[in-house]
Amino acid sequence: MKAIIFSLLISLSSVINHxxxxxxxxxQPAPDFFITSDVIEINGQAYRKKVTSPRSxxxxxLTLNSGDQVIKHAFSRVSxxxxxxxxxxxxxxxxxxxxxxxxxxxxxxxGESAVFRATEEQNLLTLHDQLLADSxxxxxxxxxxxxxFDVQ
Length: 152
Hints:
- The protein is α+β, with helices and mostly antiparallel strands.
- The chain has one domain (35-145).
- Helices cover 25% and strands 32% of the residues.
- It has three helices and seven strands, in the order αββββαββαβ.
- Strands 1, 2, 3, 4, 5, 6 and 7 form a seven-stranded antiparallel beta sheet that branches.
- A hairpin with a 2-residue loop joins β1 (35-42) and β2.
- The two termini are 52 Å apart.
- Keywords: Signal.
């Protein structure tokens, strides 16, 4: 009796496996292809700018505007430039004058820390260089949001 039940189970499993083997494989969604630009240095680290349409932008144009996406390497998360720049000033009263001189919006200022928001047209790479060249600035960092801690 056990042999009959065992042989029925084996034949039933082979029929089921054969049925699934005949079904077509599900199609994977088409990947989003993108082209990366030359290496750009942001906050002392090397990134590549993500370009989805080579016709819309010059691939090797080394600019970084608010909303542009960059990647560190092939297996890293895509980060988005938010347009915010975190700054440490030498004198706490100088934050507003620095923002006015560079046509930035002063979002936050407390003590030596300040946060500036650049317009979408401003190149964040040249803005970062201008801030570091300014004698009133100790340090500057462009914000990149990778959404690492967002709910998936």
